[in-house]
Amino acid sequence: MTTLPDDLEQALTALCARRGVDRDTAVRSILQEWMRTHGFLDGDVESEEAAAEPRKPDPDFVQYPGYFEGRGSL
Questions:
Q1: 6-16: per-residue pLDDT in tens?
Q2: pLDDT attached to residue 29
Q3: How far does CA 40 lie from the centroid of its chain?
Q4: Taking a C-beta distance cutoff of 8 angstroms, is the pair 55, 30 a contact?
Q5: pLDDT attached to residue 64
Q6: How far apart are CA 5 and CA 7, in angstroms?
Q7: DSSP states of the chain
Q8: How crowded is the C-beta side of 45, counted as CA atoms within 13 Å?
Q9: pLDDT for 11-68, tens place per residue?
Q10: Cα–Cα distance measured from residue 64 to residue 71, given in angstroms and rounded to the nearest whole number
Q11: How many Å apart are CA 74 and CA 68, to the nearest integer?
């Protein structure tokens, strides 16, 4: 098992509790989503865990990133 900084471990624990999944499943889902949104994984590949929650736009890949940082509106 890989250990992470305390803040990431706390966030991961919260994610596991919210989704009702174990740590390995949560990490796999996070990596899969990151790989997909950054072009390293085919966009059609989707895990059951990732499909359980609606997707939010990635601020790094939207036309108006300031909107997601609270600096205005669309």
A1: 999 999 999 99
A2: 93
A3: 15
A4: no
A5: 60
A6: 6
A7: -----HHHHHHHHHHHHHHT--HHHHHHHHHHHHHHHTTSS-TT---HHHHTS-----GGGSS-HHHHTTS---
A8: 13
A9: 999 999 999 999 999 999 999 999 999 888 887 655 554 445 555 666 566 556 565 5
A10: 10
A11: 10
Q: Tokens 């940082």 identify what position? A: 69
- Which residue is it, tokens 């036309």? 63
Residue 63: name the closest of 53, 73, 49, 52 by CA: 73
Give the model's pLDDT for residue 12: 95
Tokens of residue 22, six digits: 């174990």
CB 23 within 8 A of CB 32: no
